[in-house]
Design brief:
10 strands; Arc Repressor Mutant, subunit A; 421 residues; three-stranded antiparallel beta sheet; alpha+beta; 4 domains; 15% strand
């Protein structure tokens, strides 16, 4: 459930796992190779708690006994729980405490091992008052978790800012598995894979995904697309089959880190490959195409060159190489680039105008919502509980409501309940 953060519209970390920019967690691989019977929000929130645990571990001189103690006020700020009560925080922490995961699904090198363990992510949570009457939250971690945080030699660095943008449990799990695969690798490309039974446990894929179509479209490709949208990773996969029934035995992944310049290079290579398809199958002819392209890439730049390759690929009649050289020399594609730029400018102007109108409307609506939130803060506890209950109900049945900010959710629920102070 997307809960009620600060007035800027942030969700609760217990629900979203949001973190300030540039926060990283070097997470033990054994705590990534767990059964994924958590929601995306729970997995990200637990990562935040692990950051706190690691800081406490450093204070303890790496004594493998971790109890995180944090004042309620600081906890609310860290977790963006401005509008939330201690009761809500307890409920969400209890949910994490109640979850049991399988650990040691894979060995350090990815080999199957015997003795998979079943354990809780949190062992105990206490709310106590200090000598000044302020509430302290004490979070205790199980011995196995403490031992892994203290002693694990194999870790993967997770970018919490990127993870905050992930919304599916499959996307969060695959992102962490990719980071494991890249650990210790110097290049930008890595290959990794899993036996299908292990992969289903790592992703928490149930019986509803037995069909190949469901496994691909509802799990793997959803995760790949989501990870690609929030990071520089581009992932492809292959399903390996065997036996008379042609059953899926293993899933293999290839992950690459792609920078913007690399994407331009890929686009140029694709056009060049198309160009080579138009000439005779011989080294000399291919070399002529490549030399012509390389010369103009260096002299005229990327857009000039690829636009003329694209023009040639569509418009040549007989002698491809001569047409390509003439196009590159005389810039046959100049009108195409001008037209493209004009279209982009027109789209940008229209988009800017719409954005300005939307911003004005959003500012007006935000002011109204902020006023509703101020009213919400003055409501008695029973009416606040009514608001929370309605939000929780609507999130289960209304996809668009679940994507609202916490402030928008509160304001919408207040209006539907017709609550005013």
């Amino acid at each position: 459930m997307r809960k009620h953060g600060n007035s800027s519209g942030q969700m609760s970390l217990l629900d979203s796992g949001e973190m300030p920019p540039a926060v990283e967690l070097d997470k033990p691989v054994s705590l990534i190779h767990i059964s994924n019977n958590l929601t995306a929000h729970q997995r990200k929130a637990y990562n935040v708690l692990l950051i706190l645990a690691k800081k406490q571990l450093e204070k303890n001189n790496h004594d493998a006994h971790i109890m995180v103690e944090i004042p309620w006020i600081e906890f609310k700020k860290l977790m963006h729980l401005k509008h939330r009560t201690q009761k809500h925080a307890i409920e969400k922490l209890r949910e994490l405490q109640d979850i049991k995961v399988h650990i040691d699904i894979l060995g350090a090198e990815g080999d199957r091992i015997v003795g998979v363990r079943h354990l809780s992510l949190l062992s105990e949570i206490r709310f106590e008052e200090d000598s000044f009457g302020d509430t302290l939250i004490k979070i205790f971690f199980p011995p196995t978790i403490c031992e892994r945080l203290a002693n694990s030699d194999i870790r993967a660095v997770l970018n919490m800012t990127e993870m905050a943008e992930l919304t599916s449990k499959f996307g969060t799990a695959l992102y962490e598995l990719c980071m494991v695969a890249f650990e210790g690798v110097e290049g930008n490309r890595v290959e990794f894979g899993y036996e299908i039974a292990e992969f289903k446990m790592l992703m928490d894929i149930g019986k509803g995904y037995d069909r190949k179509y469901d496994l691909q479209k509802r799990c793997i490709e959803v995760a790949i697309t989501e990870v690609g949208d929030v990071s520089d990773l581009r992932i492809s996969y292959t399903l390996l089959k065997e036996g008379r029934g042609n059953e899926i035995r293993r899933v293999e992944f290839v992950a690459e880190r792609i920078e913007k310049d690399d994407e331009e290079t890929i686009r140029a290579q694709q056009l060049l490959n198309e160009a080579i398809q138009h000439v005779k199958d011989g080294y000399e002819e291919h070399s002529q195409v490549i030399q012509a392209v390389e010369k103009y890439l260096s002299d005229k730049g990327f857009e000039y060159t690829v636009s003329n390759i694209a023009y040639t690929n569509v418009n040549f009649k007989k002698n491809y190489i001569k047409f390509l050289k003439d196009a590159l020399e005389n810039d046959y594609a100049i009108n195409d680039r001008v037209r493209k730029q004009q279209e982009e400018n027109a789209v940008k102007i229209k988009r800017d105008e719409e954005a300005n109108r939307d911003l004005e409307e959003a500012e007006k609506q935000a002011a109204k919502d902020a006023a509703m939130v101020k009213m919400f803060e003055l409501l008695p506890e029973d009416k606040k509980d009514d608001v929370y209950a309605l939000i929780e109900e609507k999130e289960k049945t209304n996809f668009f409501f679940s994507k609202m900010t916490s402030v928008e959710q509160i304001a919408t629920a207040m209006r539907e309940l017709d609550y005013t102070v």
